[in-house]
Structure formats: C-alpha cells, structure tokens
Specification:
This protein has 494 residues and is of the alpha+beta class. It is 40% helix and 16% strand. The chain has a six-stranded mixed sheet, with helices on both faces.
Length: 494
C-alpha cells in the first residue's frame, strides 16, 4: 500500500469540515418530524432517564426507490443529501453455498477481484482508489458475496472511482501470482486453526448440522480444496455468479434519481451478462447428538445448535425478542445471569438466530473450565428447557422491546448502515417497508406469542452438541450466589 498522498489528506480534511458543518446544521434546526412541534425551552437539558420512558426514539425515515436495470440487476436507492458522499454496494448470490464440489471457490473469486485488471496490478488498484479518496471493500459469506465503494459524490472524484470499481468487479484478470499468494495465506490459516478449539468446534458443528447441504462446509474452504482451484475455475465462477442478473445494486448518497439510474446502468453493463443463480435449497433437520473434540486446554468450548429459520419466517420478530431474553442481549439475559453472574462459570455465553436464504443455525456457545464442562452443559440445557416451558416474564418482554426500540435507530444511523440494509432487503426479496414492519411487529408481541414461537422452533432435547477440550475428572458446579468466588476466564488457556 502506498503512502497517503497530499490529495487524500486534503479530501479527508474537506470531508471532516463538511461533517462538522452538517452536524452544526442538524443541531441548529428541527427535523421534518419535529418541525411542527414547539421549539425547545432554553433549557435545562435532560434531567432524568425517566423522561425517556415510553417515548419512541427518533429514527431516520427511508424513502427507498427501486427499479431494474436493462441487464436484469435489481436496484435500490435512497437519496441522502446531508453529505457529499456516495455509498455503493453490489450483492451477488455468489457465496460459498454455490461452491459446488470446490469449497472455497466463492471466497477466492471475491478475494481476487481487486488483485488485477487490464493495465493495473493490486498496488495500482489500491493507489487508484486511495488517490481519489475512495474506499473499496469486498467479502464472501455463505449466502452472498459483496463489493462496495465509498467515494465523494462530486463528479470529479465519483466518475473515475466508479470507472475503476466497474473494472474491478466486472473484468478482473485473476493473476496467477496473486492466486498463489492468497492460497498460501489460506493454507497457513488452516494450520493456525488447528490450535483454536473454538474454530475446530464450529467447523464440526456446521458439518454435523448441515450434512450434505451447501452450508455445511466453511466459506474459506479447506487444505485439500484450496490448492486445487486454478485461474480457469475463478474465471468460470465469475462469469456465472457475478452476472448482472445475479446482482443487487444498492446506492445511498448525494445523488438525483437520474444520476443513480446512470450509475446503476454503468455498473450493470460492466458485469458479465446472465441470469440469477438458483436459490439455495432448504436443509433437512439432523438427528440430535453429541461430539467431543479432544484438545489440550484448561478450558472447554461448548456449542449447542439446531436448525433455525430463514429470512422470510413470519415468527422472526417473536423469535428475535425471545432470543434477546434468553442469551442474545448481553448482560441481563437468562443465560448470562445464571451461568456467569450467579456461578462464575464463563466470561460470556451467547445465543443467536442467524436467518439466511435457507434455514440458518440457532446456536448457544460459551467456554468454561474443563473440570466443570459437563455440569455447565447440563445447566445450559436446563435453563433452555425451563425457558421454553415457561416463556418470558412480562418485565423481560417489556425490557427487550425497549432495548430493541432504543438500538433500532443505529441500523440506519449512517449511509454505510443504510446501504447494508438496502443490500439485504434486495438480496432476500424483503418488502421495502421491512425495517418499519419489523419494529411494528416487535412491539406487537406478547408473552404468549413469544413463548409459542420459541416452543415451535426450539427443543432442548433436539440440540446438536459439540465440545472441544480435555478429558478430565469432573467436579460439581458451585452453587448460585450473588458473588461467585472464582472469576471466569476471558480466553481459553492452552
């Protein structure tokens, strides 16, 4: 990577000064939502948090516009005039679920996008974006692969940045020397994984949970598959999976509708032409069971999992709240209270639903002292079983709703956040009102609806369990107390 140029510093200073100006403007004037309300009194400021109780937090209303390019790409656009910036994200159905018989193919293809184009190597591409004050980003996951651009919206910077971006995602050259370098880096990382019990347990969990389903293998492939992937394989995958018909283009920034349309066409025309790839099929639920991975350590990693939901499941708002109470909301959850706060068995315990194109996993994961691992596992299962039987309390539900409402504005706090939301809405074929709908549905949930949804989806006796740690003599769990005698370890010792 080259030294930052004088131009880059100048642009950074310009952006900073503009941000300060915009913030001052926003502070000094009412928003559209509050313009018809009386002006604030000269004031004393917020005197108590109780003043906020029951009040809906301010949030950004999004006017999402959508259309399709002539080449078949779906486009979502939100005009944001507050800053002279453009955020662009292109999402492809090109994740590892489309690897086929070559695990790691999708990830390698995505990682190689900015390694070379006609007349430019990886260094020249990086300098090209940097000298324009622009940022390029990319990544590949199980469902999708993305490429993103952030640039100033002024044509002098925007135009060349978009030209370079279009070349990178539409006509990469996949240089062989770069491929060899990235392959070697991946092989090194696979060796390092052998020393990480949490990683080993997670790999085994997905393999057991998904069997022959495309979600079963890791997105970065393995030591056998990665060396076998050559330039021809990357070119073929790019031609198929990075086609315009397989793309969702999201734009947020200081643009008119006509400018957004022109940019979307430019990006769409730069891509290979072709249709969308078939959607990922649903996975079959596995039989419950338990696997132990022997690993020399003072700690044992515990994973409990079963198939969860996809992005279109109507129970998602209820399950989201239910999980926030169980273990997804950090401190104050049932799992954290019982496992960490009262017994000191772990530094952190967490539960999550990960809805994807097909049913993603529901997981509970933690680390604990090896000699207490069996008792801790039983305790977690008992907490889950009791929670499913009883459901949440009204106070737990009210607290979860309030926390969700308070954190929700952060999902659209920046243009980068918004472009990410647009990409997900477009990729998963969600309604344009998805964000507002979700909050409305969350606030409408009751104790009974959350209990019913959690019981429908989860069973403490249907979990797949994977543990990684040493086989040692087990001890009884300490009794619950307000002050655990032994503080939990933050990281495993090995």
């Amino acid at each position: 990577m080259s030294e930052r140029s004088g131009l880059h510093y100048a642009l950074t200073a310009l952006i900073f000064s503009l941000l300060v100006g915009v913030l001052a403007l926003l502070v000094s004037r009412p928003t559209a939502e509050t313009a018809d309300q009386p002006p604030p009194q000269p004031a004393t400021g917020l005197q108590s948090l109780a003043e906020l109780d029951g009040k809906a937090p301010a949030r950004r209303t999004l006017d999402i516009q959508t259309w399709q390019t002539g080449e078949g790409a779906k486009v979502l656009f939100v005009a944001a005039k507050e800053l002279p910036m453009l955020d662009l994200r292109v999402t492809f159905a090109a994740g590892s679920s489309h690897d086929g018989e070559q695990p790691g193919l999708a990830m390698l293809t995505n990682a190689m996008l900015n390694e070379g184009i006609a007349g430019k190597d990886v260094t020249a591409i990086a300098e090209g974006f940097e000298n324009l004050g622009a940022n390029f980003g990319n990544g590949a996951y199980r469902d999708m692969a993305i490429a993103s651009l952030r640039t100033l919206s002024a044509p002098a910077q925007r135009t060349p940045a978009l030209q370079l971006f279009a070349e990178v995602i539409g006509r990469p050259t996949f240089p062989a020397d770069s491929l060899a370098r990235i392959q070697n880096q991946l092989l090194d990382s696979f060796e390092q994984q052998k020393q990480n019990p949490g990683k080993l347990a997670a790999l085994a969990l997905f393999e057991n949970l998904y069997g022959k389903h495309p979600y079963a293998h890791p997105s970065d492939g393995d030591a056998k598959s990665i060396p076998a992937i050559d330039v021809k394989a990357l070119q073929a995958f790019h031609q198929k999976a990075y086609s315009a018909g397989n793309a969702v283009i999201a734009l947020v920034g200081d643009l008119s509708r006509s400018e957004a349309e022109a940019i979307a066409e430019q990006v769409s025309q730069a891509l290979p032409q072709g249709p969308a790839l078939p959607k990922v099929v649903q996975a079959e639920p596995p039989k419950p069971g338990q696997q132990h991975i022997e690993f020399p350590s003072n700690q044992t990693t515990l994973f409990l999992a079963q198939l969860g939901i996809d992005r279109h499941d109507p129970d998602y708002p209820a399950l989201y709240l239910g999980n926030q109470i169980l273990g997804g909301g950090g401190f104050g959850t049932r799992l954290m209270e019982e496992v960490r706060e009262k017994r000191g068995l772990t530094y952190s315990v967490y539960s999550s639903f990960s809805p994807m194109q097909a049913r993603g996993p529901f997981m509970i994961n933690l680390q604990t002292r090896a000699e207490l691992s069996e008792g801790t596992l039983q305790l977690v299962q008992d907490i889950l079983r009791q929670y499913l039987a009883d459901g949440p309390t009204q106070k737990e539900l009210d607290d979860a709703k309030r926390e969700t409402a308070g954190s929700f504005p952060m999902s659209t706090a920046s243009n980068a956040d918004i472009v990410g939301q647009l990409g997900a809405i477009g990729f998963y074929d969600l309604p344009l009102t998805q964000l507002e709908d979700f909050m409305t549905q969350v606030q409408a949930q009751t104790v009974d609806s959350v209990k019913s949804a959690m019981q429908k989806q989860l069973s403490a006796d249907a979990m797949l369990i994977v543990t990684a740690g040493p086989t040692v003599e087990q001890k009884e769990l300490p009794p619950p107390t307000d002050k655990p005698a032994q503080q939990p370890a933050r990281v495993p010792e090995h």
